[in-house]
Amino acid sequence: MHDYNGDWQFLTGDQFLKDNRIICLEDMMNADGTLNEVFNLEYGEVAERKSIGGEWIRKTFIKDE
Fold first, then answer.
1. Which of 19, 24, 29, 64 has minimal CB crowding within 10 Å?
2. Are 1 and 35 within 8 A, CB to CB?
């Protein structure tokens, strides 16, 4: 997710608060080179996939008011 504030979030679908980490974007890219396929997400866009190596599906994130 590239949120509306410009921050990147990498979520697994089963995240827990105790597992949150702040790391540099370069470290994420080095860990998973396929993230380069979605490097151009606009603010407020999300890319999801069912598994590592799966096809990225992009959509707009609906911001809570």
1. 64
2. no
Q: In sequence order, what E strands does 15-64 have?
A: 45-48, 57-60
Give the pTM.
0.72
Domain count, the chain: 1
Rounded distance between C-alpha atoms, residue 43 and residue 46, angstroms? 9
In the 8-state DSSP scheme, what is residue 41? P
The pLDDT tens digits of the residues spanning 7-63 come to 998 887 777 888 888 888 899 889 888 999 999 999 999 999 998 889 999 999 877
Q: Domain of 25?
A: 1-65
